[in-house]
């Protein structure tokens, strides 16, 4: 598997996207998590990691930020490996909710069962389904998987974690509803706590690109050579990302960019071009669905410059 894209073209696309999108304004930092409201909104990083392990970056690509919802992809990988694709699909689903990422209504409309691992409900269900002897063992497995996807030791931010654990009452309500629906596989408050921790780890834009490149390369981190997820499970992950990775803007993203992606309310976004590379962006101001405005613009620009949309017909414009 080799990237058909010349390194010079990737380098130019990353530099151009960073330069052109610096002026893209609009959006607001997430404020329902107090810590996130305090992050500098002008921070802006772009990075690409290719399936042969080359790294391209521009701007604030080494500044750390909260992983947030992008953690849902990693935890999905762990639960998918533990349960197998069929059982994972049966328990957690693969359909978009069409509703915001923290929607209670989505649960109410579906007998308190999740539809997808990429919104809060399904993510907490997936966290609870990770096989473990106890709470801390479950946490170590999830943090270990984040580290292997990123290719370096990822750490928890005490400041972000405290900010989230003391304000996550809405997610706790969702966890209890999941318990009602029979979709919690550990104590619901324990699952909510571990889910909140997994959102509160620190990554940079290059880490996000490495995580995406691990999927682009069929489950092997192309920088470390570590197999992080089975090749057979990667298409299931990319399908979930396509359907719900940008919440209620997932369809718009498929229409305009055409790559499986995942965003987080910390301002991170990663998109995967299977067999080729992953593109990541980071900037805190979010649109009303919870996706970084500047990162969407930059990742979209790189994808367009390199003609990466999955729905393109090869050889045609
Ligand atoms: N920790 C956040 C929450 O649970 C993550 C949400 C997100 O990034 N969309 O609300």
Q: What this model shows, in words?
A:
This protein has 317 residues and is of the alpha+beta class. The protein has 2 domains: 7-68 and 201-305, DD-peptidase/beta-lactamase superfamily (Beta-lactamase, 3-Layer(aba) Sandwich), CATH 3.40.710.10; 85-199, DD-peptidase/beta-lactamase superfamily (Beta-lactamase, 3-Layer(aba) Sandwich), CATH 3.40.710. 46% of the residues lie in helices and 10% in strands. It contains 14 helices and 8 strands. Strands 2-1-8-7-6 form a 5-stranded antiparallel β-sheet, sandwiched between helices. Strands 3-5-4 form a 3-stranded antiparallel β-sheet. The longest helix has 16 residues, at 135-150. The model has no long low-confidence stretch (mean pLDDT 97). The structure holds glutamine.
Shape: globular
Question: Helix count?
Answer: 14
Q: Largest sheet, if any?
A: 5 strands, antiparallel
User: Percent of residues in beta strands?
Assistant: 5-15%
Order of helices and strands: HHEEEHHHHHEHHHEHHHEEEH
Strands in their spatial order, largest beta sheet: 2-1-8-7-6
How much is the radius of gyration in Å? 18 Å
Share in helix: 40-55%
CATH superfamily of the largest domain: DD-peptidase/beta-lactamase superfamily
Termini separation comes to 24 Å
CATH architecture of the largest domain: 3-Layer(aba) Sandwich
Total domain modules: 2
Which parts are unreliable, with pLDDT below 50 for 5 consecutive residues or more? none
Overall structural class, as computed from helix and strand content, comes to alpha+beta
Number of strands: 8
Name of the level-1 CATH class of the largest domain: Alpha Beta
CATH topology of the largest domain: Beta-lactamase
Overall average residue pLDDT: 97
Task: List all distinct small molecules, including ions and cofactors, that are bound in this structure.
Answer: glutamine
């Amino acid at each position: 598997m080799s990237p058909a894209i010349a390194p010079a073209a990737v380098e130019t696309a990353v530099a151009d996207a960073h330069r052109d999108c610096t002026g893209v304004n609009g959006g607001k930092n997430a404020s329902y998590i107090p810590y996130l409201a305090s992050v500098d909104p002008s921070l802006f990083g772009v990075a690409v990691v290719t399936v042969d392990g080359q790294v391209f970056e521009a701007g604030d690509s080494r500044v750390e930020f909260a992983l947030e919802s992008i953690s849902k992809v990693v935890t999905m990988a762990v639960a998918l490996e533990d349960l197998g694709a069929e059982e994972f699909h049966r328990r957690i689903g693969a359909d978009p909710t069409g509703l915001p990422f923290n929607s209670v209504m989505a649960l109410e409309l579906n007998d308190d069962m999740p539809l997808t691992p990429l919104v809060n409900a399904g993510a907490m269900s997936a966290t609870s389904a990770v096989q473990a002897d106890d709470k801390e063992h479950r946490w170590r497995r999830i943090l270990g998987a984040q580290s292997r996807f990123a290719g370096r030791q990822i750490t928890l931010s005490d400041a972000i974690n405290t900010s989230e654990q003391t304000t996550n009452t809405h997610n706790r309500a969702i966890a209890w509803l999941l318990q009602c629906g029979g979709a919690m596989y550990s104590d619901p408050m324990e699952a909510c706590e571990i889910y909140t921790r997994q959102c509160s780890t620190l990554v940079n834009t290059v880490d996000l690109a490495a995580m995406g490149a691990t999927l682009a390369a069929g489950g092997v981190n192309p920088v470390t050579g570590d197999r992080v997820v089975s090749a057979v499970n990667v298409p299931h992950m990319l399908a979930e990302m396509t359907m719900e990775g940008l919440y209620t803007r997932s369809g718009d993203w498929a229409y305009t960019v055409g790559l499986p992606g995942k965003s987080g309310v910390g301002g991170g976004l990663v998109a995967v071009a299977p067999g080729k590379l992953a593109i990541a962006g980071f900037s805190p101001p979010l649109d009303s669905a919870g996706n970084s405005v500047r990162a969407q613009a930059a990742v979209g620009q790189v994808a367009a410059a390199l003609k990466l949309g999955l729905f393109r017909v090869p050889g045609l414009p």
